[in-house]
Structure of Twin-arginine translocase subunit TatB:
Amino acid sequence: MFDIGFSEIMVVAVISLIIMGPERLPETVRTLSLWLGRLRQFVSSARAEIEDEVGMDEIRRQLRNEQIMRDLEKGKDQLNALAKDVTDISRIESKDD
């Protein structure tokens, strides 16, 4: 989500330790973790509601069906080309005889 490396996390941790002190830091981390969990849950439920309202499952299913139809059409074209080649070869062989 955010491109934060280990070194940036360590800098933030050291600064937090200096500003808050070792006695208040565990409580602050616990509180931040609780709020982050609630935020993630809210975002997840909001995303699920939006997908339900928009009908994402139906859209995904329709896109998948369209992909399958394109693949079938492509296979059909390949089979037609192969059948044409076989017919041409059999005509050439019948003319040679």
Remarks:
- Residues 1-54 form one domain.
- The chain has two domains: 1-54, 55-97.
